[in-house]
Amino acid sequence: MGLEGRKADLPTVPEGGHGEASFLTTKLDFLVNWSRRNSLWPMPFGTACCAIEMMASAASKYDLARFGMERMSFSPRQADLLICAGRVTYKMAPVLRKIWDQMPQPKWCISMGACASSGGVFDVYSMVQGIDTIIPVDVYVPGCPPRPEGLIYGILMLHEKIKGEKLSEKSLRAEDPLRVGKPNRSPEVIEAITGPFGNSTKQNRVSGLTSTAALARPTDRLP
Amino acid sequence: MATKKVEYVVARNPGLGTDGNPVPVTVPIPAELEPQMQGEHMLINIGPQHPATHGVLRLVLELDGETVIRCIPHIGYLHSSFEKLGEYRNWNQIVPLTDRMDYLAPLIYNCAYAMSVEKLMGIEVTERCKVVRVICMELDRIFSHLLWAGTTAMDIGAFTPFLYLFQERERIYDLHEALTGARITTSSTRIGGMMADLPPGWTAALRKFIENLPRTLDEVDTLLTNHQIWRGRNENVGVIGAEDAVNYGLTGANLRASGVDYDVRKDRPYYDYETYDFEVPVGENGDCYDRYLVRMEEMRQSINILRQALDRLPDGPINVDDPRVILPGKTDLMADMESMIHHFKVVMEGVNAPVGESWLGIESSKGELGMYVVSDGGSKPVRWRVRGPSFINLSALPKMVEGRLLSDVIATNASLDIVLGEIDR
Amino acid sequence: MDKPFEKAVQGLETGPEASTPEAAGQGGVESTGHPSVAALREKFGAAILKAVVFSGDEHCVYVDAERSAEILHWLRDDASQRYDYLQDLTAIDYGGGRPLEVVYQLWSNTHKRQLRLKVTLPLHALEIDSVYDLWRTSDWLEREVFDLFGIHFRGHPDLRRILMPENYAEGHPLRKDFPLRGRFSRAEQTRLALSMRVEDYYTPDELTIGGTPVAAGDGLAREGRVGGPSEAVKNTTDPMIGGDIPISQRAPVPGGEATQGR
User: Fold this and answer.
1) Environment class of residue A98 by beta-carbon count within 10 Å: exposed (0-12), middle (13-18) or buried (19+)?
2) Lowest-confidence pick of B139-148, C17-26, C165-174
3) Rounded to two decimals, what is the model's pTM?
4) I want to staple C88 with a disulfide (CB 3.0 to 4.6 A). Which of A193, B400, B406, C105 is the partner?
């Protein structure tokens, strides 16, 4: 496949707009970005504990309504922002992909929490090791679960990202129709970013330092 | 990549005809796309992504109009394999995993797990630790019921209680954070004691919280309990009889609302629950309304228990004095070599449990939570099994909704108080 | 300062009791004083293989696999036993080729007694009678044991996977010879997860409701449907644009061949 295939995986660096930035296009960009970011309607894809913190963000103390986001849209067709809050299993992955595909452009994605960003504590057979293998992610919010302030910081970071967008950059809002329902990364990249690291490679049932006879079983050493 | 084109069939209007009217265009529809109308029953999918399923639950319903003929729940969309992961973790390293199963009442899970491992090891915790754990468990019972009431009200259509109750939950979040450093994923117990003792001022803050909570509960009561719409949507909905409830394995408020008086705190008391003065509310009709009333009353009884526990909180060490399981104090650790080695061994090798097993059931906010730990003498379990009450409560859902209307499915599902983390584990 | 340190080191190194591989599944002392154990021994005699007490007060009875359903039936219905409540049903895999144990945890709400029952199943004969008719609680519990351990329950009306997807092909996860990260590579797991068809989401039973399913258009052309992909795309093996990787070229599976377990 060569290098050309790889280019599709890497996030594209937006090229300069077609034509120079004129006063009118800059003002138009500003207006469009202002209206888009100031009332992002979130599609809360809450699965686990992070969903509770997302609900707490929407409640009275850390009010999301001040960002125009109190209208949690449960229909993807009417949403701008997919907040994936919680761990995603391989059984749930096609659902996530389908919902992402159903959202119309412009759309953004916040991966909330460690499990959505990289699999979190769950480096197991059933857990997706990061939703960016399935859908493109704009902002990753770390935490287990992230505090509501953390989620709000992620949202503000997304606002900054939206501020820098240009209408003339077609690549930002382009979607390849052939990639609907398919993973977001190629198999080699998925292997590279979800491979075991650190302690995962040494996971076995018996701690290496113990000197009990329980070490004797070969099945204890399986990763 | 951008140069590959896909062909769509597009019906292009050829414009106006000779008589000045648009030419009608017939788009040929291939035979395989023609819907076949067979029978009168509909197959409806609720979830797994749905606002009212309280997590990633998928309900497949066979509907005849609005009436549910069959309801088939599909779970497993959150299966994080806690039980297998537990086999690769030390006894203390499993405690953070327990938070993430029932994330609505994490302290209860922390305590239940620590209790079952301590039973296996034959460790008796200190008096202070017992009372602190009772405080933690009752606080999280309230915590879980507050969320349940808020989301159930939201499902039925009443949005306001959600905001009031979440404000109370924020106060509990502050208490969690003061005690353990985290709002939700507390990980506060350790084998033989707690991660840390109560910080100064915590009991005063808790007292203030339980003085103010009844007022909020009264407000929610005023809004909901005698409201005609609330009663109409909850009375005689999702009914399950006492015998069926026992046979289907329901526990917790679901079982008690059907008239069966089984509460683990009363029937197999642990941590001196028999010395606390509290009542267990038992319903009669086994419908959603009774489950609501039982849980509201349970919150008030938990406030009662908390008050008594705070009054009897003894001084003394929070951790048991057993160097095999408890880390040495930080000042000792920094001062002498033996404590450093002791600390190193406990953390790196883990605590060894004796050969054997222990199944311990306690009353969690959702029902009877069972923790089964099997040890082969090492520092990691051979098997760690969690009997999540919601898993079994949910299996009774088809029995409760078949023959009822579609909107009753939502109300019944909400009244079961399920949390998918402990269903899918 | 010496005494606690020595105690700690000694306790950590040897453990409270001898820990050998054979020790797994042991640790109980002989059971005395539980009325159900005595009654069971009297009624079923040789079918009760062993009765031990774990952790001080948890009585556990090991029974013969053939008569387990009969024994459980008696435990539920006999007036002096009345174990009307099945608290838990699970299984234990000790690893190393040892037999699996199916564990029943019972509670009698009338007599306020608990009892544990264990049935040992050799790996080559993982079959046992279902207790679906005795306690409906076992409906999902037995499905879960089947899903995670591969134990077949005779007489269960709907024994299929519950936590893993129905077409999960990597095996039975909670077995000790199943690796923590699964048998397929992550890329393969992702690919399989996203390549499911409508039929994979439903059981055959559910598919009979309402007629043949018609997959709503995903907005896109797939082969055989309206406006199929162009010839150039049809024969591609690039998974990113709809092609399929032939089996021989799939990512290597770590830790051995993938078993087709169901």
Assistant:
1) middle
2) C17-26
3) 0.83
4) C105
> A36: distance to nearest CA of chain C, Å?
25
- State the average pLDDT over residues C235-261: 45
Taking Cα atoms as reference points, which of B145, B414, A115, A130 lies closest to residue C189? Answer: A130
The chains in contact with chain C, meaning 3 or more Cβ pairs closer than 8 Å, are: A, B
Angle between helices B288-312 and B127-156 (to 10 degrees): 150
Q: For residue B28, what are its two tokens?
A: 């040929």
Q: Which of A77-91, B87-101, B356-370, C205-219 has the lowest mean pLDDT?
A: C205-219
Q: Which residue intervals of C31-158 are DSSP H helices?
A: 35-44, 68-77, 138-149
Q: Which of A84, A126, A178, A184 to mutate to test the interface with B (most CBs of B within 10 A)?
A: A126
- Please, which residues 155-184 of chain C have a Cβ atom closer than 8 Å to chain B? 161-165, 173-174, 178, 180
Same domain for A116 and A137, yes or no, is yes
CA distance A23 to chain B (A): 30
CB-based contact (8 Å) between A16 and chain C? no
Task: Report all structural domains of chain B as residue ranges with CATH numbers, in order of start.
Answer: 1-36 (no CATH), 82-424 (1.10.645.10)
What residue ranges define each of the domains in chain C, with the CATH number in brackets?
26-198 (3.30.460.80), 210-249 (no CATH)
CB pairs under 8 A between A and C: 126
**pLDDT tens digits along A21-64:** 678 888 898 999 999 888 899 998 989 999 999 988 988 888 89
The CATH number assigned to the domain holding A59 equals 3.40.50.12280
Is A211–C13 a contact, with Cβ atoms under 8 angstroms apart? yes
Q: Is the CB of A76 inside 8 Å of chain C's CB atoms?
A: no
pLDDT digits (tens, 9 = 90+) for A50-106: 999 998 898 888 889 999 888 888 889 999 999 999 999 999 999 999 999 999 988
Helix (H), strand (E) at residue B288: helix B288-312
Q: Given an 8 Å threshold on Cβ–Cβ distance, is A222 in contact with C19?
A: no
